[in-house]
Amino acid sequence: MQRKSVIFVADSLDNAHKFQAILSGMDVDVVAGSSLQFRKLLHEHPSCDLIIFEASNDPTNSIAMVEDLMVQDGGGSILIIVKEEMLQGLRLPVRLNSDFVVHGASSDECALRIRQLLWPGNEASTSEFIAIDTMTINLATYQVTVNGKPVDFTYLEYALLAFLVTHPGRTYSRDALLRRVWGFDYFGGSRTVDVHVRRVRAKLGPDLAQRLETVRGVGYLWSA
């Protein structure tokens, strides 16, 4: 199972302690902070796979703010912690993969919802291999084979392919891919993404290349 990254945001100590214990038993890297630190945490960890967010007493505005910031960063998944009295009129993000859990829910329920967001359909698998048609990616050794033959990717070509394949069906702009694959310290032009996409497609061959789709005016996605 591929190791994931999580940002945990809460202002209450009981949730902080509870989710710290839950996440400590998962294959994840965690950074945590208060709601006032959320923007800073997201800026410093652009490739985060999941945000666990404790909604404030104004859940509509706080959730909308988080959704807007995450969409600007390229998406991701979010688990929202809400109080029971907030359920009436609760609006979950529609532009993100999202779920919610009620404050006071059992640790088992919280863990299940986290696993479903991080490893959908693969919660119990420990395999480091992803097999798609004739391609196999070994996430542990960074090796790719097509029709049983190794394909020689540069590190950034591999990183781009692995990122899109592990986030299927989700479209990322060039800027979002630069942040998530190259990192915030990259200052080159966003068109470098196009160059790397062309190289990856050429090395994959025509059949697999069709799955690395161009969404005109938006960016790229790996079709599920």
Give a topology summary.
Elements: E1 4-9, H1 13-24, E2 28-33, H2 38-44, E3 50-54, H3 59-72, E4 77-82, E5 97-102, H4 107-118, E6 129-132, E7 135-138, E8 143-146, E9 149-151, H5 155-165, H6 174-182, H7 192-204, H8 206-209, E10 212-215, E11 219-222
Parallel strand pairs: 1-2, 1-3, 3-4, 4-5
Antiparallel strand pairs: 6-7, 7-8, 8-9, 10-11
The helix-strand sequence is EHEHEHEEHEEEEHHHHEE
Number of E-state strands: 11
User: Helix fraction?
Assistant: 25-40%
Average of pLDDT: 86
Pick out the low-confidence regions: none
Shape: elongated
- Count of helical segments? 8
Q: Sketch the major β-sheet.
A: 5 strands, parallel
End-to-end gap: 18 Å
The computed structural class is alpha/beta
Question: What's the arrangement of strands in the largest beta sheet?
Answer: 2-1-3-4-5
Q: Give the DSSP E fraction (strand runs of 2 or more residues).
A: 15-25%
How much is the radius of gyration in Å?
Answer: 18 Å
